Amino acid sequence: MTDEKFDLPFESQVEPLRLEAQDELKFRCHRGVSCWNECCSHANVTLAPYDVIRLKQHTGLPTSELLKKHTVPFEMDASAMPGLKLRTDNSGACLFMTDEGCSVYDNRPTACRYYPSGLLSMRTVGQNRDERHFLLIKEDHCKGHLEDHVQTVQEFRQDQGVIDYDDYNREWYVIILKKRSSGPAIGKPSELSLQLFFIASYDMDRFRRFVTSTSFRKSYNLSDEFYQSVESDDVALMQFGFKLLRQVLYGEIEIPEVEGAWQKRLEERKDVLKMRREIEAVEHDKKREKELKSAVMGEQDD
Fold first, then answer.
1. pTM
2. Residue extents of the structural domains in the chain
3. How many CB atoms are located within 10 Å of the residue 236 CB?
């Protein structure tokens, strides 16, 4: 069994306490608390796919522009599985933070909604589902724990609107947990697999272009209704991406493939690579001929 903690708004040296959904949590954050904005001033927020979709909806930015402007990439494990964190300023403050609080509050990421609690997801080897527990972290700067407000962890999750976020991201968490718990048994993903993981997890606009491309349509037996849904629905596209990732990374076939399509693409790719090598060889010969001519002319000048 492997334990995985999904990031709180910033790293802490304090040991978290494990909780269950019905355990009580004494905490309340509001503008009148003395530590207002402190956690956002030292932000280290890891993003999940649904977080990106909500931020895209809030900002109105295409995902590629949103990622460039508001996120930084990092490697989630030794296999270089790509992750994303919210970008901060030079002092470590979240770029969405204002004096009044979070400027994207209604669409804030999962980790921000959970703080000072968090999701602890565990997966038993051989199982495709995860077990959910929670954690609590008390840091000296946070005065919300001194507030006279008690509720269960489940009530806190409902109040913070994080339940839908967890449900939408759940299959993605399982994909990551399966990779980490299987370790060398699965092996390191190829560079193309890592690229697919990135765009299917975070860059919905780019992933949409990939899924609706002619070559993709020729490779999979998918209905017109499917393509109509993913043309306009980011959540439907994200959920399809999870299926595609399980198929590519773990061989869990859920998406019907066109018989012989991949073999045909490999053969076409061989022809393209052969042509590219021939062109490169010609260009190399031309360059070499030009260099030799230049050298000869230089000797004659001497």
1. 0.78
2. 2-170, 182-250, 259-302
3. 14
